[in-house]
Amino acid sequence: MINSDKTIFEKFSDWATRFTGSSYAFIGAVLVVVVWAASGPVFDYSETWQLVINTGTTIITFLMVFLIQKAQNKDSKAIQIKLNELLAANEKASNRIVDIEDLTEKELDQLHCYYEKLADFAEEDNDIHTSHSIDAALRNQNYKHEFFKKKHEEWLQKQQEKKESL
């Protein structure tokens, strides 16, 4: 995908998220703490010496909360879109599940109970291959392929009929 639409903040946020999650950032943080701790005797473990690390870590923590939340929001939105696409593409899946994140907590609890009941039914199967075998997945894939192929051919035929009627 094209990244030219990213704002400066978004570019910085992506970079900072990747960097702060790296081993380099961890090593850097450890080095800062080691240097600070080693400088303790030089500064007689004064209040100012303690204030430096406390202030620094507080500011960094404060800023990281917002950076992490932005990254989390972006990841969450991307995952929701991917899940919505899977639901929309699967003819057997309920389209009512798309965008359920907008439901109230009570409505989500009701749906959760429904899926717990389905999980209970699945647990009653002694053989895990009965409901999720490779053969069943292949049959489902072939069925979906033929179904969508047929629907696409019907759509192409309708498009051709529209062109001919003009």
UniProtKB/TrEMBL annotation:
Bilayer-spanning residue ranges: 21-43, 49-68
Pfam families: Iron_permease (PF04120)
GO biological process, one term: transmembrane transport
Keyword Coiled coil: yes
Matches recorded under InterPro entries: Iron_permease_Fet4
Chain coiled-coil ranges: 76-103
KW Transmembrane (keyword) present: yes
UniProtKB keywords: Coiled coil, Membrane, Transmembrane, Transmembrane helix
Official protein name in the record: Low affinity iron permease family protein
Species of origin: Chryseobacterium elymi
